Amino acid sequence: MKSFEYTITDPVGIHARPAGLLVKAIKGFAGSAVTITKGEKSVNALKLMALMQMGIKQGDTVRIDVEGGDEEAVASAIEEFFKANL
């Protein structure tokens, strides 16, 4: 498993547009399971509504866990997505 933490910088946090883009990006990595954790809550990153219901706001730090095929490449791509969009 590959993990990294990221602090959200987007003024609105994880809302509909970036959440939808994130789900779409993760779907491109078949065979990898991506979990996003904030505090005690964890969700499958492919579950758009669950992701939005976490209430992740600017300044919140989340942990992203990647399991499955080519974890390094998937985690790196997701980290770049976060930096560019969140």
Spell out the CATH superfamily. HPr-like
Oligomeric state of the chains in view: single chain
Number of strands: 4
Determine the fraction of residues in helical runs and give it as a percent range.
25-40%
Indicate the mean pLDDT: 90
Order of helices and strands: EHEEHEH
Shape: globular
- Into which percentage range does the β-strand content fall? 25-35%
Main structural class? alpha+beta
Largest sheet: 4 strands, antiparallel
- Under the CATH scheme, the architecture is 2-Layer Sandwich
- Adjacency order of strands in the biggest sheet: 1-4-2-3
- CATH fold-level name: Histidine-containing Protein, Chain: A
Distance between the termini: 23 Å
Q: Any idea what the radius of gyration is?
A: 12 Å
Low-confidence stretches: none
CATH class identity: Alpha Beta
Secondary structure tally, helices: 3
Question: How would you characterize this protein structure?
Answer:
With 86 residues, this protein is α+β, with helices and mostly antiparallel strands. The chain has one domain (2-85): Histidine-containing Protein, Chain: A, CATH 3.30.1340.10. Helix content is 38%, strand content 29%. It has helices at residues 16-27, 48-53, 71-85, and strands at residues 2-7, 32-38, 41-44, 61-68. Helix 1 (16-27) packs antiparallel against helix 3. The longest helix has 15 residues, at 71-85. It starts with a strand and ends with a helix. The model has no long low-confidence stretch (mean pLDDT 90).
